[in-house]
Amino acid sequence: MKKYPAIKKEMLTSEVVKKYPQTIPIFLEYGLHCIGCAFAQDETLDEATKVHQIDLEKFLKDLNKIIEK
User: Fold this and answer.
1) What backbone torsions phi and psi does residue 57 show, to the nearest 5 degrees?
2) The overall pTM is greater than 0.70
């Protein structure tokens, strides 16, 4: 059975941080320091990575890796 990632690009930044607080260091490592700002409340991971010119696939991989621990 194939395991699907829990964190996907369509998820809101605020949703990920609330559900998986252990991901906060990953956000900070990638330079996404505004995880608590008003824009982050309604911004998807896909949108955030585009704005900050971050490799979406690598970012998602790192987020999902940390929640598997």
Assistant:
1) -60, -45
2) yes
